[in-house]
């Protein structure tokens, strides 16, 4: 036997969200056999992933901040992508993403580079199986390793989400 809905506000909300008109359709007051209503109790707890992209880093400016985490929310890094173009003479050996974790330990993800022919582009994308918690008020940046010759340009993107822990406190 299904569950009976007696709250008129819930019935009204189910009607609105499902598109059932009060004049043309009937909303069953007994559910669970055919319909399972899902109610979003606290939309602030929803995690919305966002993407941030750095400015272009070049031979003359070998680093860029992609994002600075909030002081009031926990930030979880879900992944990143780095796009690199360089000429055949460029001897840049690596490019990396850097941040500090929640324990204030510096972390980086280094990408060794292969030799590219003039005018070619390489894109590396990494999705973390488990999101990485980044320290509050922390910069996440893209940096180029040492080089002695040639020209390059790179851009980094990150994606992740913030969680306001105060919303998770129960009284």
Descriptive keywords:
mainly beta, 171 residues, 2 domains, Jelly Rolls, 42% strand, 1 helix, five-stranded antiparallel sheet
Architecture overview:
This protein is mainly β. The chain folds into two domains: 8-39, no CATH class; 45-168, Jelly Rolls. The chain contains one helix and nine strands; from the N terminus they run αβββββββββ. The strands form two sheets. Strands 1, 2, 4, 7 and 9 form a five-stranded antiparallel sheet that branches. A four-stranded antiparallel sheet has the order 3-8-5-6, with no helix packed on it. Strand 5 (94-100) and strand 6 (106-112) form a beta hairpin. The mean pLDDT is 76.
Give the helices and strands, then pairings.
Blueprint: H1 8-18, E1 50-53, E2 57-58, E3 63-68, E4 74-86, E5 94-100, E6 106-112, E7 120-134, E8 139-144, E9 152-163
Antiparallel strand pairs: 1-9, 2-9, 3-8, 4-7, 4-9, 5-6, 5-8
Shape: elongated
Averaged pLDDT: 76
Following the backbone from N to C, one meets helices and strands in this order, namely: HEEEEEEEEE
What is the C-level CATH assignment of the largest domain?
Mainly Beta
Query: Per CATH, which architecture of the largest domain?
Result: Sandwich
Distance between the termini: 35 Å
Low-confidence stretches: none
Helical content (DSSP H or I, runs of 4+)? under 10%
Query: Which structural class should the secondary elements be placed in?
Result: mainly beta
- Say what the CATH topology of the largest domain is: Jelly Rolls
Number of strands: 9
Question: How would a textbook summarize the main sheet?
Answer: 5 strands, antiparallel
How many distinct domains?
2
Number of helices: 1
Rounded radius of gyration (Å): 25 Å
Taken as a percent bin, the fraction of beta residues is 35-45%
């Amino acid at each position: 036997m299904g569950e009976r809905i007696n709250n008129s506000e819930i019935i009204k909300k189910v009607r609105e969200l499902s598109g059932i008109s009060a004049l043309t359709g009937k909303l069953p007051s007994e559910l669970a056999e055919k319909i399972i209503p899902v109610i979003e109790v606290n939309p602030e707890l929803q995690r919305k992933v966002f993407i941030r992209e750095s400015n272009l880093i070049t031979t003359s400016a070998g680093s860029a901040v992609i994002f600075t985490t909030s002081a009031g929310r926990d930030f979880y890094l879900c992944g990143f992508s780095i796009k690199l173009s360089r000429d055949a003479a460029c001897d840049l050996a690596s490019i990396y993403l850097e941040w500090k974790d929640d324990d204030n330990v510096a972390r980086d993800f280094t990408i060794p580079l292969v030799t590219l022919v003039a005018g070619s582009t390489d894109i590396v994308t990494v999705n973390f199986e488990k999101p990485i918690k980044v320290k509050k008020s922390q910069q996440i940046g893209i940096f180029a390793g040492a080089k002695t010759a040639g020209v390059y340009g790179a851009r980094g993107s990150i994606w992740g989400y913030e969680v306001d822990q105060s919303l998770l406190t129960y009284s």
